[in-house]
Amino acid sequence: MIEITNLHKSYGKLEVLKGIDQHIAKGEVVSIIGPSGSGKSTFLRCINLLEQPTEGEIRIAGESITAPGACVDKLRQKVGMVFQHFNLFPHKTVLANLTLAPVKLGLMSLAEAEAKALGLLAKVGLADKEDAYPSSLSGGQKQRVAIARALTMSPELMLFDEPTSALDPEMVGDVLDVMQSLARDGMTMVIVTHEMGFAREVSDRVIFMDEGVIQEAGTPEQIFNAPQNPRTQGFLAKVL
Ligand code: ADP
Ligand code: MG
């Protein structure tokens, strides 16, 4: 599903990603852990071209997204992204937040988009919130709307950047439950998270990033129970 070769990203003189090679299979759930500033968000943002890589190649579902002339709109339809701070449109209802993109891009009629949106809202446990505005929702509800919104485009891949980091603790579980059910349905997911329990339980593979490189990757068992890299060991000793 994702083939990343020699990915580099610099901001001016600051080299943030220093050569990342990674393959992620269809249906795989991969968690990325690592200290703040290690390049986790930049890595995710390169996968949907919110950042332009400085060097290297990224292929998604067989198509190069880094080749000259690659179509960003088509890519964004294949890749859903969920951010720490929800990024909902504040002046639109929940339903309008979900229907905006597919209708604007001409992929669905409004009626089709609304039917799909209502199904997705039910799926994330917010069937009664279609007419609500984001400001009236809790953080956990907002994040579930953001997940439903990303799903309206029927993405092949979902990227999550610390989706629960801005939530009050009592809201975290509902959002993780929605993500877990997506994972069970076979969605390919890449999740930057500080929720180590969730990463251990839901991931097929865990990647530990530090200083712009993948220091270690393996099954949750390998990474959490028997990390080999001293940096992984040091990080886990602090967060577990
Ligand atoms: P993480 O998500 O692991 O905390 P980031 O990918 O956000 O790390 O950031 C990695 C490094 O890149 C940090 O030093 C950060 O300050 C820097 N950085 C991130 N985005 C930008 C940007 N748009 N311009 C300049 N520097 C940036
Ligand atoms: Mg980040």
List the helices and strands and how they pair.
Blueprint: E1 2-11, E2 14-24, E3 29-33, H1 40-47, E4 55-60, E5 63-64, H2 72-78, E6 79-82, H3 94-104, H4 110-123, H5 139-151, E7 157-161, H6 169-184, E8 188-192, H7 196-202, E9 205-210, E10 213-218, H8 220-225, H9 230-239
Helix pairs in contact: 3-4, 3-5, 4-5, 5-6
Bound molecules: adenosine-5'-diphosphate and magnesium ion (MG).
What is the compact description of this entry?
The protein is α/β, with parallel strands linked by helices and 240 residues long.
Give an overview in words:
The chain is an alpha/beta fold and 240 residues long. The protein is built from nine helices and ten strands. The protein has helices spanning 40-47, 72-78, 94-104, 110-123, 139-151, 169-184, 196-202, 220-225, 230-239, and strands spanning 2-11, 14-24, 29-33, 55-60, 63-64, 79-82, 157-161, 188-192, 205-210, 213-218. It has a six-stranded mixed sheet, with helices on both faces. A hairpin with a 2-residue loop joins β9 (205-210) and β10. α5 (139-151) packs parallel to α6 (169-184). The longest helix is centred in the C-terminal third of the chain and has 16 residues, at 169-184. The protein is globular. The chain starts with a strand and ends with a helix. The model has no long low-confidence stretch (mean pLDDT 97). Bound molecules: adenosine-5'-diphosphate (ADP) and magnesium ion. Adenosine-5'-diphosphate (ADP) binds at residues 11, 14, 16, 34, 36-42.
